[in-house]
Design goal:
It is a single chain. By secondary structure, the chain is an alpha/beta fold. 40% of the residues lie in helices and 25% in strands. It contains ten helices and nine strands. The protein has helices spanning 14-28, 39-47, 59-67, 100-109, 123-134, 138-141, 151-159, 170-174, 205-215, 218-226; strands at residues 4-10, 31-37, 54-58, 77-89, 113-116, 145-148, 165-169, 179-184, 192-198. Strands 1, 2, 3, 4, 5, 6, 7, 8 and 9 form a nine-stranded mixed β-sheet that branches. The chain is elongated.
Length: 230
């Protein structure tokens, strides 16, 4: 088995992937080099030729790349589902977002809202901006938006009080101590996104497969749950 593998991963699963990579190294001696970014950014880098032994993206993105025969046959592995939600800095007043009406009021009353910039390919940012447009709120809310490159950046922006409210996947807030998840979007406008991993054909196949298998063990599934991933 190779003594080192590279993993390119979507930011929504950064918390559990980071924790489990350390556990994998302890269990096998194989070191894991982690690289986190948005789904869109990682997909583009991979398609442009950047080498990686494991790639973790949205399920839809992995399926699309699999149809292009870019992965080792049978290596596609489902990992978890992230849910879009709202967070504030710990200790700050928690808004009520239990209904669409109250969620709308939160958007109208907030002075500033951190979210992923859809231009950087983040799934939550793409969804949220589209949601604002569908709700007829985009023009009103746009001046308040603090656009961030990644979900982690969004969480840190809230932590530093550079925005009152943060909106991205709850798993990305849970991974940043000092932020507090208010809740997920009301079910009528909720957004859940699945994530999966796969092994590229030119990868170190044996350790890469071992890593994905490790990520789906019973204890690993509990780790994903602890970060708010189903």
């Amino acid at each position: 088995m190779s003594d080192r593998i590279k993993v390119m991963s979507a930011g929504a699963v950064e918390g559990p992937v980071t924790a489990l990579a350390f556990a994998f190294t302890e269990a096998t001696g194989c070191e894991v080099e982690l690289s986190f970014n948005t789904v869109g950014a990682n997909r583009d880098r991979f398609v442009a030729g950047e080498k990686t032994d494991v790639i973790i993206l949205s399920t839809a993105a992995i399926e699309a790349l699999d149809k292009e025969s870019r992965f080792v046959s049978g290596s596609r592995t489902g990992l978890g589902r992230a849910t879009c939600g709202v967070a504030v800095r710990d200790g700050m007043l928690m808004p009520d977002i239990s209904t669409v009406e109250k969620f709308t009021a939160m958007l109208k009353n907030a002075g500033s809202i951190a979210c992923n910039d859809p231009a950087h390919g983040g799934s939550s940012g793409i969804y949220f901006i589209d949601l604002l447009k569908r709700m007829g709120l985009y023009d009103e809310v746009k001046p308040k938006l603090v656009l961030c490159k990644t979900g982690r950046d969004c969480a840190i922006t809230v932590l530093r009080l550079q925005a009152e409210i943060g909106i991205t996947f709850t798993s990305e807030f849970i991974a940043v101590p000092g932020t507090r998840v208010v809740g997920t979007f009301p079910k009528e406008i909720g957004y859940v996104n699945g994530y999966a991993g796969a092994v590229p054909k030119d990868a170190a196949i044996k350790p890469a497969r071992a890593f994905l298998e490790f990520m789906t063990s019973a204890s690993s599934k509990e780790c994903f749950k602890s970060f708010g991933l189903e």
